[in-house]
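This follows on from our talk about sequence and fold. Can you supply me with one protein entry, sequence and fold together? Could you add the entry underneath, on a fresh line?
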Amino acid sequence: MPENDEILYYVWGVDHVAYGPIELPALVNWVQDKRVVADSWVYRQEVAEWFRASELPELKMFFRDRAESRLDDTTITRRLGPDVQPSKLRRIKLFAGMDDLQIQSFAKYLESIPVRQFTTVVNEGEQGDAMYLILEGELRSRTVTDGRETTLCTMHTGEFFGEMALLDHGLRSTDVVANTDSVLLKISSTAFDRIVQEAPALAAPFLYALSKTEVARLRQLIGKYEASISFSRSAGVGSLTTANR
């Protein structure tokens, strides 16, 4: 069930039936699937009014002229610097569900960070306030115990890290170090708060993609944990068998 402060919508279908209530992420998906078009009537429960979909502030970006929807090389390069070629933004997995206009709009909230090889980007235990998208290069997540490093994972172009700190401002759980010269796109917590306030329809596909990736990571982690338990139990049975001989 949605929280009490969630904004809910109903959509008037071509079959003259109102579908809903749905939350904004679902409404955005319906727009992208063309189930909702510019002239569709959408009821915004918060204000108890019907609007054309193209007139809702949170949906306007989806119905602009197609000519405006191409990635603007000059605009993005001016915002993020010469190291960031607009076409490369398509490498970011979290942008996979966005169209060109959405990516262009999202770019104004990003900061380009060039990183030299062997640079530590974040340190375990420090306060976090941003996440990073890997536009170019390779980095590793590591932990150091008794002076010995253990690599937890290696991350490549298109991947991201630091998302938990973005959402809860908690402490970093690992170090992240650049294996090669890299280019990162930083989303600070301040910038993310602005996205949520200024462009909720922009935040929705981003958060949806983020949640899907987090679920996949969690399933992988659970699989490794279950395999570890199974191995430990098997090893324990083997030891008992040997001891009983």
